[in-house]
Specification:
Low-confidence stretches: none
Shape: globular
Radius of gyration: 14 Å
Structural class: alpha+beta
Strand order of the largest sheet: 2-1-7-6-5-4-3
CATH topology: FAS1 domain
Number of domains: 1
Mean pLDDT: 92
Organism: Methanoculleus sediminis
Pfam families: Fasciclin
Strand content: 15-25%
Order of helices and strands: HHEHHEHEEEEEH
Largest sheet: 7 strands, mixed
Protein name: FAS1 domain-containing protein
CATH architecture: Roll
Number of helices: 6
């Protein structure tokens, strides 16, 4: 078994998320110790954004790191455990709203398309949308 970062790096559907982790300086966090729950949008999920918006986010390392940290939760939580909650705080500081049963759980407006990928330092779930913290979403829409 490998770390969250190393496992995600082997999944072709997650190459955009992995590249953003590296650019945003979060790869080491998800490669190291601790227990985390990461939410990885598929490459297709990023197609909802224009090239200009993605470039704006990746050009601003602080904004990018904030966005990445909004996809990471302290502790190892399966979809079954998450489904028993209404919301959870991310490493970025904002909360994600949680709804639905484990088989159809939604985090904000993102659905989990592959749950509970076990790793040495936690777990990750593959999601169908990119999650944006409210502050980043407001700046992006401007």
């Amino acid at each position: 078994m490998k770390s969250i970062f190393e496992t995600a790096r082997e999944d072709d559907r997650l190459s955009t998320s992995v590249a953003m982790l590296q650019t945003g300086g979060m790869a080491e966090t998800l490669r190291g110790g601790g227990e985390y729950t990461a939410l990885f949008p598929t490459n297709e999920a990023y197609s909802n954004f224009s090239r200009e918006v993605l470039d704006a986010i990746t050009a601003d390392r602080d904004r990018l790191t904030e966005m990445i940290m909004y996809h990471v939760i302290q502790g190892k939580l399966t979809t079954h455990e998450l489904s028993r909650m209404e919301a959870i705080r991310t490493l970025q500081g904002d909360h994600l709203d949680i709804a639905g049963p484990p088989s159809a759980i939604r985090l904000n407006d993102a659905g989990v398309i592959q749950p509970d990928v076990e790793c040495t330092n936690g777990i990750y779930h593959v999601i169908d949308r990119v999650l944006l913290p409210r502050a980043v979403e407001a700046r992006v829409k401007r």
